[in-house]
Design goal:
113 residues; alpha+beta; Alpha-Beta Plaits; 4-stranded antiparallel β-sheet; 6 helices
Length: 113
């Protein structure tokens, strides 16, 4: 499951839970009201799942209690997309300049009259 659009707006982080008691961490986090989905066990015995950015920070007490470690393996969603867009400073300006030109001259094509 990829998550809903609301989760995409908050930001989705894919994490790998290593060491300690990963099953206990998942069970306690779900019982505590955190939203974890796409929970699966990897071949190395680790647990991998997806969580929103807000719930990622609320996982800290459960991580300490079960002596697990977290590895972030993927990031998706609006906050991460904005960071990527900030690095490409000329992309928004190029789009905003090309839009009026395409509206003004809609029949620009490679054929001559």
């Amino acid at each position: 499951m990829n998550g809903t659009w609301m989760q995409w707006m908050q930001g989705i982080v894919t994490i790998r839970i290593v060491g300690g008691q990963p099953e206990k961490l998942v069970n306690e986090a779900l019982a505590g009201g955190l939203r974890l989905w796409s929970i699966r066990r990897t071949s190395a015995g680790d647990v991998e799942c997806a969580v929103t950015v807000g719930d990622l920070f609320r996982l800290r007490p459960y991580i300490r209690k079960t002596s697990c470690k977290l590895r972030i393996t993927g990031r998706r969603g609006f906050p991460f997309w904005l960071v990527k867009l900030e690095r490409r400073k000329f992309l928004p300006s190029a789009c905003s300049c090309s839009l009026p030109a395409s509206m003004r001259y809609p029949r620009l094509s490679g054929t001559s009259m």
